Amino acid sequence: MDPETQSMKLTFNIHGGDFTHAGQPSSEVKKVLKQLGIDGKTIKGIVIALYEAEVNVVAHAWKGTVEVEIDETKITIIVHDEGPGIPDIELAMQAGYSTASKKVREMGFGAGMGLPNMKKNTDELIIESEVDKGTTVKMINYFL
Amino acid sequence: MSGLPTYHALKVDAVKCIGCTHCMKSCPTEAIRVIDGLAVIDHERCVYCGQCHRACPTRAFYVEQDDLEMIRSFKYRVILFPSIMIGQFPEKYSEDQIYAGLKKVGFTHVYEVEQPMQVLIDSVNEVLEDQDTHKPAISIYCPAIVRLIQGRYPSLTENLILRKAPHNLAAHFAIEQLIEEGARREEIGLFYATPCIAKIAAVKSPVGERESIVDGVVNMNQLYNEVMKVIADGDVEDNSIQRENLSAEGITWSLTRGESCHFGSRSIAIDGIHNAVRFLERLENDQVHGIDFIEMRACDQSCAGGILLTGNRFMTVERLERRAKRYPAAKDIAQTTIRVDTGALKQKLILDPIKPKPHFIFGKDRVKAMEKMNKAQRIVCFLPGIDCGSCGAPNCHALAEDMVNNKAKMSDCIYLQQMWVDEGRIKAEKAFLNVQKKWGTDRFKADCNKRGRRNEGF
Questions:
Q1: Which of A75, A136, B80, B160, by CA, is between 20 and 30 Å from B251?
Q2: In this structure, are B317 and B435 located in the same domain?
Q3: pLDDT digits (tens, 9 = 90+) for B54-104
Q4: Is B26 found in the same domain as B161?
């Protein structure tokens, strides 16, 4: 491997409806970032954003993947799912807007803060979605 | 921050240690390795939870303490001890008989540390009411938890409540009271009877304090034995004046929910170091909402499960709960009984900020750290994933990390070695020598009296 472009890659699968195991990818990513000596505040933002993205897949989609790439200056996270998609991304970005089912809300999720929280905790956020196909969320955070 | 060096009270007796893997497997921070047939503690990572001490089948872990004789150099010799100490003694002994026993051992004044409790309760409430306090606020009561947070969950150090523990409260209180009685500060010697290793480190090299207020530490099990030697079951002098500031809250403070039941509208109590690890993981991921206060203790049943206790933890809890019913509520203890200036006492309970001390970093250079981690990840692919501990590291991943840090080598894995022997890459004799080097030459001889057998404790 070329030391000039040293990077780390991590991949995870997410299953729709499996709230029990949501949070595992964010915990793993957190552990790696800690070992790299990234500062706590930056880690916290990344972990919150990733967890929100995970919960979105679990709550709305059928299945998904998380691909993480870490290099010297930044972390890039791509969360891709096969699911219903988001018809109006701008509307979904508004705080409090939610399409979560009653069941999901009763579990303490789906308060409509997912995407706004991801926006708040990432340096770059790109969302692409196709109705009835799925959604891809790309998040980039730069290290200090 | 304290300028004092961190005090390492936990030691391994090289004669007793048989080099098994029990301690290494139980450690929550992977701080133990077996090297040359002996358990070795990495004191940077150790949080003094005492899991290894508990897990050891040969009692090879021991806890250093100060010589009890040192108390003689003081005119006023104060023993400070948490209420759980009283819960250790059989019911047939009264509180006064235990107090009298402590005086026979050589102390002039006996103070249970959980007094006057209302001062600490008020002080913590002030923190919780402050708008700037990070919620959920976490108690610093258990020093093992504080070290765990500093090392493994550094971002949560800002949630720690910067108010001292009861032993400080009682130490300041005892000093004030004795000075009131005419003692000079230098004549007063304060000694703390500790239920665990974490408290020793916290007393000897406190976090967030400039110097230790206590002159010496006595292990609670030893003090128990000393008292049992001299305790009388007949009539003894009335020492109840030394307990006049003790409250129901104080007596149950060191038990699980002893703190959390007083604070915040929503609070959580967690005991057991592995439970704490799992919860802190969630907390750090921002998956815990609406909680004001968290009580967290490293031992199961909190201090009643401390490793330096003699009595059964569940019976200790029951005795203390029953004892608490005989004592007044903290708020009902009159200021005239406390006698010292509670405002000044409260001021002394404020801690300096506690700084993170992350201990899982792979080195300062991020590119090099990443290189090492990638390498460790590739090494893991070749390891069997049995996590047997035969290499001297707690699991395959830890071994891989040790390898990239030049602390271990591929041949430490007995399964890889076996494979290499099978493939003819190394000789069987060489492989066996490697294993003997790690675990000692006598390790593999037949021995029907082998120490540390699994069933020895039954």
A1: B160
A2: no
A3: 999 889 999 888 888 888 899 999 999 999 999 999 989 999 999 999 999
A4: no
User: Nearest CA to B93 among B227, B255, B222, B218?
Assistant: B227
Asked if the structure places residue B297 within a domain, the reply is yes
| Dihedral Cα A58, A60, A63, A68, nearest 10 deg | -60
For residue B361, is it within any domain? no
Give yes or no: residues B103 and B192 share one domain: yes
Structure tokens at B147: 């070290």
Please check whether residues B31 and B96 belong to one and the same domain. no
Token look-up 């509208």 returns B265
Task: Choose the weakest-confidence range: B43-57, B118-132, B348-362, B402-416.
Answer: B348-362
Q: Is residue B451 part of a domain?
A: no
Determine what percent of chain A is predicted with pLDDT higher than 90.
Answer: 53
- Six token digits for residue B217: 């530490």
What is the domain extent for residue B159? 68-347
Residues 43-82 of chain A whose Cβ lies under 8 A from any Cβ of chain B: 43-44, 47-48, 51, 70-72
Catalytically annotated residues of A:
52, 56, 105
Residue A27's closest CA among B279, B402, B275? Answer: B279
Measure B168 CA to nearest chain A CA, in Å.
30
Inform me whether the C-beta atom of residue A111 falls under 8 Å from chain B C-beta atoms.
no
Average pLDDT over residues B13-25: 91
Residue with tokens 């032993």: B167
Residues of B in contact with A41 (CB under 8 A): 155
Distances (CA, A) of B419 to B376, B411, B413, B425, B430: 20, 10, 10, 9, 13
The neighbouring-strand residues paired with A81 are A64, A135
DSSP A51-117: HHHHHHHHHH-SEEEEEEEEESSEEEEEEEEESS--S-HHHHTSTT-----HHHHHTT--SS-HHHH
Using alpha carbons, list the distances in angstroms from residue A49 to A25, A141, B11, B91.
12, 10, 43, 56
pLDDT above 50 for A1: no
Looking at the structure of chain B, the number of domains it has is 3
Residue type, A76: T
The CATH number of whichever domain residue B36 belongs to comes to 3.30.70.20
What tokens appear for B181 in the block? 């009685």
Rounded Cα gap, residues B306 and B232, in angstroms: 26
Chain B partners of A43 at a C-beta cutoff of 8 Å? 155
Nearest CB to B374 within list A8, A30, A44 = A8
Q: Chain B interface, mutation test: which of A1, A24, A36, most B Cβ atoms within 10 Å?
A: A36
What are chain A's domains? 3-142 (3.30.565.10)
Q: Decide if B449 is inside a domain.
A: no
Burial of A93 (0-12, 13-18, 19+ CB in 10 A): middle
Average the pLDDT over each of A3-7, A105-109, B118-122, B453-457 and give the range with the smallest value.
Answer: B453-457
B432 and B297 inside one domain = no
B249 plus B126 within the same structural domain: yes
